[in-house]
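Run log, item B.
One chain of 146 residues. Sequence copied directly from the ordering sheet:
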Amino acid sequence: MIERLVNLTWVLVGAAAAVLSWRIGLTGPYGPDSGLFPFVAGILVCLGGVGLLLTKGHAVNGLEWPDRAGWRRIGGVLAGLAFMAASIPYLGFAAAGVITMLILLRTVEQSSWVSSILLAVISVAATLGLFGYLLDLQLPRGPWGF
């Protein structure tokens, strides 16, 4: 029963995202607008929920909770996402992205400091290069201009 309610929740969340993004606008005078990606994502989530509703449910026996390391990884993901959301207006995308990647890589992947720093800087630089320069999107800039 709970599985069906969760699946129905995915249908409703996807449908709500599609409706709200439709209101933003899917296309503009220059092509796709800011509502197109959330619309497509909402439709996919909704269709996934419908697919789950149509499949036979599986009874869960002996539900297992994560161990201490699992809770640490879950906390790392939540802390990283919360930090990113809270710090972008103050630090900008680049600095917030590097720090968030460090949090995620150290808590979830348990990478070494050297590989974490290297991967964080390279991935944020690639993201800035793709979205900030190649696609010319306006990413939030921090007090240092990047």
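Observations after the first pass:
- The first strand starts at residue 27 and ends at 28.
- The beta strands are 27-28, 31-32.
Flagged for discussion on Thursday.
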